[in-house]
Structures are given as C-alpha cells and as structure tokens.
Amino acid sequence: MQRGMNAWLLLTYKVPPEPSRRRVALWRRLKAMGAVYLQNGVCLLPKTEAHIGELRLMEAEIAEMAGESVLLETMAFDAAQENKVMARFKADRDDEYREVLGRCAGFEAEIAKEIRIEKFTYAELDEETVDFKKLKAWYEKIKSLDYYGADLAKTVAARLNECEALLDDYARRVFEAQVENQDGAL
C-alpha cells in the first residue's frame, strides 16, 4: 500500500479545566499556527522544523499546567485519508478567507460612502489606508498558514487588488479636492 507523501505532527493533550485562560491561550496559539483539530485536544500540523520547535515548547508548557501531551509524527494511511486531512486544512483557511472577503465588502462600501458624501480629506484617506493595510496583513497571515492551497486564496488576492485600486482612486480624488481647495483659497 502506498503511504501518503505528507508528514504531519499530531499533538494530543489534556489540560486541567481551570484556569481556563491557559487552556484557551494554548488553543489560540495552535490555531494561530494553522493547526487543524481532529477532535478536542487532538490537532495536526504539517511537519516543519518550526512546528516541531513550537510544539516541543508547548509540551513543556502543558506539563507545567499539570497536563499531559503526546507529540507524534504521522502520515495518512492512504491517499483518501491524506486528501481528507488536506481538505480540513483548506476548509479552515477558506473560512478565514471568507471573513476577509466580508471585510473587503465593508471596505468597498466605506469608500463608496465617502465618495458619495464627497468626504475627500487627508484624515479620511489616512484612515482608509490603515484599514486597507490591516486587510492586506490579515490576508498575508492567512496565506502563510495556507499549507495546501485553499480554494478562495486567489479570489481574496484578486479582491484585495480591487480594494487597492479603489483606494488609489479615492486617494486621487482626495488630492484633486485638496488642490482645488488650495487654488480656491488663493
């Protein structure tokens, strides 16, 4: 039987329920690394040196919490199982990409509102620029965890390009309005 090509790190852990903040912090760190939970206290990450190092640190922290953990290297039994695991990783990233798409829609609506009410100020442009940079950084963070190429990655990249073009157009309008205001003040 042909074994899968991808190696994963499987972390199983059990920590005391209290204090809950420590358990939640552990969960958040694992999710921030892009871990996929197979069930409560059982998660997978692609095998990388960085992940090995981080999970070894977590093992020590779990022990300090009076918890238990086991860290294993594993592979899928067959291609069908490997595809299931990869699909879970992709689905998690697509969920995150959907959130970015929702925020893109909000960003576009905000720019459209500012254009509609003709609010062409440098302060507003700065605010919109900061918002766009946050969107872009969020996308980059998700992309760094997109180990297997989630379906929505290209859609989000294209949508961010559209948002950037919209911001560029808004910036042009702001600069034109400011020049007109300066000309009128002379």
How are the strands ordered across the major sheet?
2-3-1-4
Count of discrete alpha- or pi-helical segments spanning 4 or more residues: 5
Mean pLDDT across residues: 93
* Largest sheet: number of strands, sense, barrel closure: 4 strands, antiparallel
Order of helices and strands: EHEEHEHHH
Structural class: alpha+beta
Low-pLDDT sequence parts: none
Radius of gyration: 23 Å
Strand content: 5-15%
Number of domains: 2
Note the overall shape: elongated
Terminal Cα span: 82 Å
Question: How many strands appear in the DSSP assignment?
Answer: 4
Helix content: 55-70%
Explain this structure to me?
This protein is α+β, with helices and mostly antiparallel strands and 186 residues long. The chain has 2 domains: 7-75, Alpha-Beta Plaits; 87-185. 67% of the residues lie in helices and 13% in strands. The chain is built from 5 helices and 4 strands, in the order βαββαβααα. The chain has helices at 20-32, 49-64, 79-116, 122-145, 153-185, and strands at residues 7-14, 36-39, 42-46, 68-75. A 4-stranded antiparallel beta sheet has the order 2-3-1-4, sandwiched between helices. Strand 2 and strand 3 (42-46) form a beta hairpin. Helix 3 packs antiparallel against helix 4 and helix 3 (79-116) runs parallel beside helix 5. The model has no long low-confidence stretch (mean pLDDT 93).
